[in-house]
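With this grant's support, we have settled on a layout for protein records. An illustrative entry appears below exactly as we store it:
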Amino acid sequence: MSTPTRNYGVKLIRGPFVRLEPHAEHCANERELVDWVAALRRRDPGVRLAADLFSGAGGMSLGLEQAGFRVVFSADHDPEAVETHAHHFGGMSVDWDLADADAVERVAATLRAVGVELLAGGPPCQPFSKAGRSKIRDRVRRGLRDPHDQRRDLWRSYLEVVRLAEPKAVIMENVPDMALDREMFIFRSIVEELEQLGYSVEGRVLDCRAYGIPQFRQRLIIVALRNGHVFEWPAVAEQTVNVWNAIGDLPEVEGGWRPAGGADGWADYAGPVTEYQRLMRQGILGAESARLYDHITRPVREDDAIAFEHMDHETRYSELPESAQRYRTDIFHDKYKRLDENHFSRTITAHIAKDGYWYIHPRQGRTITIREAARLQSFPDWFRFAGPPSAAFRQIGNAVPPLLAKQLGECLAVQLAKPVVTPSSSRQIGRTLAMWFAERERLAMPWLKARTTWQVVVAETLLDRLPTLSAQLVWPSLSSWATPEAALAGAEELREVAAWVGRDDRVDRLLRTAARMVSEGETQPAQLASSPADDASSGADLGPDEGAEEAPAADRPGHHAETAASVPRTVLDLALLVVPSASGDGEEPVIAGRGLLRLARRFFGDEQILDRQNRLTDGRIAVARLIGGADSAREAHLGLIELATSLCTTGTPACGECPLRRSCVEGSSAP
């Protein structure tokens, strides 16, 4: 007997399609904007003007206005987002493509004409090929700017607006991955260019949960200030907000429910209960206080309803009964996710516009509504989104949480009014390190001036974690094996030298690597690198594990997993730094071991750098800021490694001999 086919489809329910009228103070062109801003200044001579590029619906703009700035110009290339922004904010909201050189120059001229003080924005940052990175790095180091063309990356368009408009303050926002690749290339380039333009620059990965937003959402924030001002980050919130704190007051609705009245319809609302809910209802008065707009979501398929019934917040899709699955569990093992009402929401992304399966309501058998998604992003309930529901979800997912932007704006407003100081730039610090390294004759890690990558591999395999004096004594003998062929030919002598320092047990592994390189015709170890999964350090924590007993030179780059015939990623990264490729287009990976993180913590006076959760984010960003992105970055990085190994050690550092003492928070106060 055949099994009847079940039809799990649901009737498509469209809309409502929200149309929003422009703000009462909307300006249609630059002439109107100049006149309107002049009137603003007459009413309030101290008004601080801001602009928001890649603005989306206006999450950043809303937060900045709540902090006291007046956003008078915005640009985005999403028509519905521009409509949303134009409804909520005065001034110009334009649909311009900032990949277009003419648009870039027009934006900059407009910002100059009205005297914008703060430029904010989150330009998309696309990855680069090695050749592309090499070309851009060369132009940055020589102080050249790229010629305008349609293919330029949008973060460079953003920096061009900064160069031409010269605002006092700049905020750049993006996903952490933009900065945390092996080279941290885009981040270092942005810092370098901003410093060349006269800005002091700070960068940090902020976790929105720590700032009163009920969502796990990490964002890289770069803040740049002109004229010697230095940015101080907002303090974390005293209390966190969970999902139910944020949306527990919203009325129950069925999936696919639509209010009478279309876009003007509403759900009945009883009132807020928690402090966060009251914040989201602030400013809603009179009859509107009993109304809730945009509390709609997708219809629920019959089979999805069954699946939702079997789920709590810990259930994976692959754990559902087979009868409740309609996707392959080997690919979509985490396809559905019910939110945990007592915890934070997972990151709201633009993908929610396509499906909401990662955002199933914590108690009801449906995905979350537009209003619930907006609440989890900290948009107040009076904020509406233009277009169909899919466009509203997309705008919410792409937005900067207004509550985070507000706190950044408040810090900026305070610090722009503070007395000016003169911080050291990444370029100055990097050049100081590079010069110190070039002049230093007796290195704690002599192989930092090796001639071949194989010499680095040999030294890191046989000398890592040795006392400095032992490593210095053995290095001249080891350096004679400059190639894999030489190591194989002199295997017995190599074993004898390694025995002097008790490392003869590592020689077999080294010889296996050499044999593999020779047999495969490799002259560089790059192709033999172990994967991050095989190498616990992964170029991120090159010091000893927490709780391990440290050897005298434990902080040198060398703590790595032992693999059969491969080069650990940490060793490869160091080799790429020590011996650049002959073509000049090799990688410059950012190495951030415990010794370097300790040095960065002392330099910046920021304990957060050494926090276990922040080492791969704020820790690496701090190291990148110390080495900079100028022509001396490679030598500066090697100098930083040597400094952490020789002077800035555990216990009492030799601050009196440190080349960075005057700029270092701890070193400048040392006796």
The beta strands are 48-53, 69-76, 92-95, 118-121, 169-174, 199-207, 218-226, 267-268, 291-292.
